[in-house]
Design goal:
Length: about 290
């Protein structure tokens, strides 16, 4: 009974001395914790508490409502992040399916074997990056360039680097160009059909339409020695576009030279080299058009 009375008295004394509650022990001063990392943590806590108490929302009557809105916003942000990740995962699956389909196309066309080892056609296609490498490799292996002279070769290859739509362009009239262009169309149509068979959705006519003939006669005339102002009269295409196409064409021909080297076809390599020399001249390849 005496102990209970003393305890009650002690508690009343504490309550009297600390009407707002017993103060917390200071871990450094009272508990003598002197570890440097702990002291740094305590200082950070004190700084954050000070900033918290000074914040305008600390005593705001709408604090709870505002907190709920912030929580909803945060939850929506998390859902948005998770949904984006799901979308990325779905795209990865789609890209994986597309990759499998493209590998089937390469196997069907003979660019790699069933073990995905690159064949000779594949090594040739790897040399080409400016144009449609599959179509160009098919033309090489079909022998489509073997009997063509350098000017016609340059004209045919212009189909692979000219991409602009042209209104009121004159029809292709040279018989020496019509046959090679039909071969380009046949190869393009075959590639598009194989892609569709391998579950790559390809519009055949759109794909064939990518190989534009509108600058074939212009390129042929230029490679045959015509003057620049004369070839400009042959087409509604702007002069700057003609120059840009010729420079891209020269880059493509250099890649075709490397492709011919890859299969050891010296005759074809020489023809591509002659085509390059035929177009690489005068104002089209001047360092500056202001000279």
């Amino acid at each position: 009974a005496v102990v209970s009375t003393q305890s009650t008295g002690s508690l009343r004394e504490v309550q009297k001395r600390f009407p707002d509650g017993v103060p917390l022990l200071d871990p450094v001063e009272d508990m003598k914790i002197k570890e440097g990392a702990f002291e740094e943590t305590v200082r950070k806590i004190e700084t954050l508490e000070h900033r918290l108490y000074k914040h305008p929302l600390h005593n705001d009557p709408k604090l709870e409502e505002t907190y709920e809105l912030c929580e909803k916003k945060n939850n929506l942000a998390i859902r948005c992040r998770d949904t984006k990740q799901e979308l990325r995962d779905a795209r990865t699956v789609l890209q994986l399916d597309e990759l499998k389909s493209r590998k089937r196309v390469l196997r069907r066309l003979g660019y790699c074997n069933n073990a995905d080892v690159i064949e000779t056609k594949g090594r040739v296609a790897c040399e080409i990056s400016t144009g449609q490498e599959l179509a160009l490799a098919e033309l090489i292996f079909n022998g489509s360039f073997n009997d063509l002279d350098p000017a016609v070769i340059a004209a045919v290859l212009s189909c692979f680097v000219f991409e602009e739509g042209v209104k009121d362009a004159p029809e292709l009239t040279k018989e020496s160009l019509k046959g090679p262009y039909r071969q380009v169309q046949e190869v393009a149509r075959r590639i598009a059909q194989v892609e569709n068979e391998c579950k790559l959705e390809t519009n055949v006519e759109e794909y064939v339409g990518k190989f534009k003939w509108e600058l074939m006669e212009v390129t042929h005339a230029w490679a045959s020695g015509a003057k620049f102002h004369d070839i400009c009269k042959m087409t509604p295409v702007f002069e700057g576009s003609i120059i840009r196409v010729m420079r891209r064409l020269e880059e493509l021909i250099r890649q075709m030279i490397n492709a011919a080297k890859a299969i050891g076809n010296n005759d074809l390599e020489n023809k591509f080299s002659d085509a390059s020399l035929a177009i690489k001249r005068d104002i089209v390849f001047a360092a500056s058009l202001y000279l």
